[in-house]
Amino acid sequence: MAVRTIYDEGYYYTEYAEVDARYEIMYQEGLTEQQLYQKYSDDDIYSSIMLMRDDTLEEELDNIDSFLSRQASDTYERPNALMVQGAIGRWDGTSSGYDICKRLEDVLWARDAPFEDCQISDIYDEDGDLHIEGYHHDGSVSVTIRQLTDAGEEVLDDWMVDQKPGGLDKIWNNPDLCPKLDYAEKEFGAIDQDAQEAEYDPEER
């Protein structure tokens, strides 16, 4: 299993993020460490870290949106639709299912979208599947995003007419209709499995 982290909100609550924020301010303003501590309070540093977090998330989502928009259809004068599989947990239970969206923003920000009123916590690629996770005041949300092929859109159109049970499962599980995005590999290159195993080898720790 190959997992590649794209965004991790948890990092911004670690001492490493604080060090990065302090060095970034020192570099941008040409300050020494002593001058930094004289000029900036702990609250100022925390605000800088949160700004780093928000800027990084926005940048990563823009990159994903651009990637999806480049997947031009051979038939339609637009990118193919997204198929989203996910689960939303609330105080009264968990609901799961599929959603069809035109663009990434429809998954994240549209009214009644899976991530409406949510803070995104993690974005990662696992064996070619793109996952986005988040949370809200009374629960969590987790989705996997794929993009339909032209053939997939045609099968989906037929299913929308009869809506036979299991039709969406068949589309999702057919790589000719709804393949994994392979986002990380296409954008960042193939992962070095030996290097990844060495990095996480418990015998080396």
What would a concise description of this structure say?
This protein has 205 residues and is α+β, with helices and mostly antiparallel strands. It is built from 8 helices and 6 strands; from the N terminus they run E-H-H-H-E-E-H-E-E-E-H-H-H-H. Strands 1-4-5-6-2-3 form a 6-stranded antiparallel β-sheet.
Task: Explain what you see.
With 205 residues, the chain is an alpha+beta fold. The protein has 2 domains: 9-69, no CATH class; 82-188, no CATH class. It is built from 8 helices and 6 strands.
Describe the SSE topology:
Layout: E1 3-8, H1 15-29, H2 33-39, H3 42-69, E2 82-90, E3 93-101, H4 104-108, E4 119-126, E5 129-136, E6 139-147, H5 150-162, H6 167-172, H7 183-188, H8 193-199
Antiparallel strand pairs: 1-4, 2-3, 2-6, 4-5, 5-6
Structural class: alpha+beta
- The count of helical stretches stands at 8
Strand order of the largest sheet: 1-4-5-6-2-3
Rg, Å, rounded: 21 Å
Number of domains: 2
Helix content: 40-55%
Count of distinct strands: 6
Task: Summarize this structure as a short list of keywords or feature phrases.
205 residues, alpha+beta, 6-stranded antiparallel sheet, 8 helices, 6 strands
